[in-house]
Design a protein that fits this description.
It is built from 17 helices and 14 strands. It is an alpha/beta fold. Bound molecules: nicotinamide-adenine-dinucleotide and uridine-5'-diphosphate-glucose.
Length: 439
């Protein structure tokens, strides 16, 4: 089938490429000419394992194209996906202006001669957005145009997006239009995954409810971690023990500095705002947010207790990305932590396997900070090492080398990557989350 992806950001590029990979013909549209120029030159604007090769092979096979023209995209795709940003407004509610604009732009390019089009929302949007999209397209399109509107939320995780897209746990398709639903089922035929068909409102709600539940699991284990610390228990063992119950599962029970990234913080805020607007305040999610914010304060207190003051201390910071296997620093807890330590007068030597460039461009880190690709180099003369992102390189670090390089071998592990006994044997004074400190 012919597919158009409007918005060639993280979701548009990865999912457009995967649709091409399973045999569809895909045109990716973006209003950012620099991004499209890069892609036309064979450069990939984001770091995502496996993506560069997949883009290249599908471009070479003639199944994947890039353009800045929405009109070209609307003429091309029987199915037109919307994958544009849905950022938060200051009050937490969702800014839907990008979606509204795309709905108008699609409408203005539709003609009765083009034939039936399915307009699919892949962006994360509040329940009832599909109804608004349908109204907007109807209002701005010429008479006689035929279209259906679908919600098809995206569940990919950054860092393993290609695998998540090619082998999803489930595909959710929501629409009140039977013709649109049958085209969507045909589109997803090459994927081996259960397909859940719902009405459009339920599909939209599934996305916010799923992300909120995952964030709830993270805050839950972080709250448990605090109880573990107070009782000399080990949160890793507790997570294993509760996770072995199939009804609970071990995934998303990694205690740490809390969740960040471009999705969870904004989507939890959005779901709180949506529920409130519908007259159903969701206090539980406010508590999830509170616990998440508190994790950072608790961790900083832990460092403060040992260092006494941050001023004039050299701290090695391992991690800038919001999680492993990505160069994305949007809403990164590591960046927030770095800002707090810089504000208190520490000097930082930061490293990250992929996110140094994005962190520099992000521009939020000002003060005494240097960046280095050499993770051991950041330790020379350091008063403390702070681990903020769960990269495997950090988990597999040479502990003796860490101890050798530092001025005082104090390690604060915000992602529980190291083994406390191994750290102790290597001569490190080691603090982590929800595990008794080993001195
Ligand atoms: N990043 C993720 O992991 C992820 C996963 C699932 C869902 N989502 C959701 O998907 C949506 C997109 O997220 P993202 O991370 O891909 O965003 P992004 O910022 O990486 O990309 C969005 C792209 O849309 C383009 N754009 C904006 N207006 C446009 C227009 N009128 N026409 C054409 N292009 C336009 C921008 O230039 C940008 O390249 C959001 O709603 C997000 O919540 C994101
Ligand atoms: O046990 C865990 C798991 C994750 N995290 C943190 O949670 C955040 C989000 O991680 P993850 O969910 O893996 O990354 P995202 O790429 O943001 O993916 C989430 O957000 C996407 C956008 O909506 C959804 O599509 C995905 O299903 C959903 O997992 C990161 O800061 C992680 O460090 C933890 O602290 N503990």
């Amino acid at each position: 089938m012919n597919i158009t992806m409007i918005g060639t950001g993280y979701v548009g590029l990865t999912s457009g490429t995967c649709f091409a990979e399973v045999g569809h013909h895909v045109t990716c549209v973006d209003i950012n000419p620099e991004k499209i120029d890069m892609l036309l030159k064979g450069e990939i604007p984001i770091y995502e394992p496996g993506l560069a090769d997949l883009v290249k092979s599908n471009v070479d096979a003639g199944r994947l194209k890039f353009t800045t023209s929405t009109e070209e995209g609307v003429k091309f795709g029987d199915v037109i996906f919307i994958a544009v940003p849905t950022p938060p407004q200051p009050d937490g509610s969702v800014d839907l202006s990008f979606i509204e604009r795309v709905a108008r732009e699609i409408a203005e390019c539709l003609t009765p001669e083009i034939g039936y089009r399915v307009i699919v929302d892949k962006s994360t949007v509040p329940v009832k957005t599909g109804e608004k999209v349908a109204q907007t397209v109807r209002r701005y399109a010429p008479d006689g145009v035929e279209f259906g509107v679908v919600s098809n939320p995206e569940f990919l995780r950054e860092g393993c997006a290609v695998d998540d897209l090619l082998h999803p746990d489930r595909i959710v398709i929501g629409s009140n239009d039977d013709k649109a639903l049958s085209l969507m089922q045909k589109l997803y035929e090459p994927f081996v995954a259960p397909v859940l068909v719902t009405d459009i409102n339920s599909a939209e709600l599934i996305k916010h409810a799923a992300n909120s539940f995952l964030a709830l699991k993270i805050s839950y284990i972080n709250a448990v971690a605090n109880v573990c610390e107070a009782s000399n228990a080990d949160v890793e063992k507790v997570a294993e023990g509760i996770g072995m119950d199939k009804r609970i599962g071990r995934a998303f029970l990694n205690a740490g500095l809390g969740y960040g990234g471009s999705c969870f913080p904004k989507d939890i805020k959005a779901f709180i705002a949506i529920s409130e607007a519908l007259g159903q305040p969701f206090g539980l999610l406010k508590e999830v947010e509170r616990i998440n914010a508190e994790q950072m304060d608790r961790f900083l207190n832990k460092i403060r207790e040992k260092l006494w003051v941050f001023r004039d201390k050299k701290i090695a910071l391992w991690g800038l990305a919001f999680k492993q296997n990505t160069d994305d620093v949007r809403e990164s807890v590591a960046i927030k932590l770095a800002k707090r330590m810089l504000e208190e007068g520490a000097s930082l030597a930061a490293t990250d396997p992929e996110a140094i460039g994005t962190a520099k461009r992000f521009g939020e880190l000002t003060g005494e900070i240097t960046f280095s690709e050499d993770m051991y180099g950041t330790l020379d003369g350091a008063d403390a090492l702070v681990i903020a992102t769960e990269w495997p390189q950090f988990a597999n670090a040479d502990l003796t080398e860490i101890a050798k390089r530092m001025r005082t071998p104090l390690v604060f592990d915000g992602r529980n990557l190291l083994d406390p006994e191994d750290a102790k044997s290597a001569g490190l004074e080691y603090e982590s989350i929800g595990r008794a400190a080993i001195v």
